Amino acid sequence: xxAECDGVLERIYSVLDGEATVAELADIHRHLEACPPCxxxxxxxxxxxxxxxxCCVEQAPADLRAKIVASITRVQTVQTVTARSAEGTSVVTxxxxxxxxxx
Length: 103
Ligand SMILES: [Zn+2]
Known about the structure:
This protein is of the alpha+beta class. Helix content is 61%, strand content 25%.
């Protein structure tokens, strides 16, 4: 591993994140072609990143849905209200209330 390798390996991440400049890309690719250990490292990181990206894409909707469900909770309460009417008899009234709580 040379000092050049260290520099290339540091920049692999910005290449994978799409943050490297065209000049940097050319530099790194030139190095990777001539340096199998760095190329291997690059491929491992690229594969890892692709895997993470794929996982995130698959998990995001479910995760997002869970967040939405958690933030908006419909609380349905059934209240039984016992009141006394003017005639003195008990009147039972059921009140169904749906409350939307936004977190
Ligand atoms: Zn190298």
